[in-house]
Specification:
Elements: H1 5-15, E1 31-36, E2 42-46, E3 49-53, H2 70-75, E4 80-82, H3 88-91, H4 94-101, E5 104-107, H5 109-118, E6 126-128, E7 139-145, E8 148-155, H6 180-184, H7 189-198, E9 206-213, E10 216-221, H8 227-230, H9 232-239, E11 246-250, H10 256-259, H11 262-271, E12 275-279, H12 296-303, E13 313-314, E14 330-332
Parallel strand pairs: 3-4, 4-5, 5-6, 10-11, 11-12, 12-13
Antiparallel strand pairs: 1-2, 1-14, 2-3, 7-8, 8-9, 9-10
Helix pairs in contact: 4-5, 9-11
């Protein structure tokens, strides 16, 4: 069987030509490759298995700011799409990508319903992980492929809470909106129409995912909620998971304006990563967001609060340089034993 040339080209672009077989499109199985395509969306090749974390190519107030399209993402032929939550900036392309490539959507019942609605109610393969009424801390365990295990944990969306005072308080983070990218990458009718159609998509519950293959552990979440104040039991669940080799977590959120990066830090403390990479911190909605460079100093300052021996290495992702740049998040899979 001849591999689809579009799949091979897409995988080479996202994961690097040296990591993809030019004839079959297979991605090398001895690496974990993570390629960012805006906001909290990533294409991942882990042990040769390709999957997506969230499914939205940012557009609406801009066009072309992220140098890919939903069609190219679908051409990766991902085995699965993992939805962190259902808002437009995380899941607005899930239905179209799943329908085009046959990926199995993973998320709550609400996320599955939203994805089906995006493609006119067509049936999509979807693994339901609870519903929008599931309790924070609920846990779901399964295998994506032989040896590749997944744990999903219900947690909270970012939310503004009263200013926390005391030794654990963090300084507010209030970057100035960057409107320059609207001028440099102006949207057309299709981009603004896409945003309008998906703007009011429901959250549908929030899920954190951990992926384990051999001794390697990757954890990802697309929102960081006020767990310390509203759901400390979730932190207990996260502490009970294996420590993360790589943790990709949201840093931009509603509570940054009041409590800085205290909430993202609580996830990092619980998950104990060797490497931390931020997400949901780029200029995906220029009226209210800023470029990732605005978070460099606050993030480093926040993690300086951790004991020196438990501080992760920070792999900062900066728009637009680090879109579709798999070498930024490329890791060896150590042989078992």
């Amino acid at each position: 069987m001849v591999a689809d040339s579009r799949m091979i080209a897409a995988r080479q672009r996202f994961f690097g030509a040296d990591a993809v077989d030019p004839d079959s499109g297979a991605v090398r199985a001895d690496r974990v490759l993570v390629s960012w395509f805006g906001c909290a969306s990533f294409a991942v090749a882990m042990g040769g298995v390709v999957f997506l974390l969230d499914a939205w190519v940012p557009r609406g107030l801009t066009a072309g700011y992220v140098p890919t399209t939903p069609e190219e993402v679908a051409a990766l032929e991902p085995a699965a799409i993992f939805i962190g939550h259902g808002h437009f900036d995380h899941a607005a392309d899930a239905g179209a990508i799943a329908a085009a490539g046959g990926a199995v959507v993973h998320g709550t019942a609400s996320h599955c319903a939203t994805a089906r609605k995006q493609v006119g109610g067509a049936e999509l393969a979807c693994r339901e992980l609870g519903s929008d009424a599931s309790a924070p801390g609920d846990r779901y365990d399964f295998e994506l492929a032989p040896g590749l295990s997944v744990t999903a944990v219900r947690h909270l969306h970012s939310a503004r809470t009263p200013r926390h005072e005391g030794p654990d308080a963090s300084a507010p983070v209030r970057p100035r909106p960057c409107l320059c990218d609207i001028r440099a990458y102006p949207p057309g009718r299709s981009e603004t129409g896409h945003l309008a159609r998906n703007l009011l998509a429901p959250e549908g519950g929030v899920l954190l995912y951990q992926f384990r293959l051999g001794d390697f552990v990757l954890t990802w979440h697309d929102s960081s909620g006020p767990l310390l104040d509203k759901a400390p039991e979730v932190l207990d669940v996260l502490r009970g998971l294996p420590a993360s080799d790589v943790h990709i977590g949201a840093v931009q959120g509603y509570n940054q304006f009041t409590n800085g990066l205290r909430d993202p830090r609580s996830y990092i403390e619980a998950l104990r990563p060797k490497v931390f990479a931020p997400n949901h911190h780029d200029n995906w909605l220029p009226l209210i967001t800023a470029r990732g460079e605005a978070f460099v100093t606050p993030l480093h300052a926040e993690l300086e609060r951790l004991p020196e021996g438990s501080r992760p290495e920070i792999r900062m992702l900066l728009d637009r340089d680090d879109y579709l740049a798999p070498r930024r998040l490329s890791f060896d899979l150590a042989p078992k034993g």
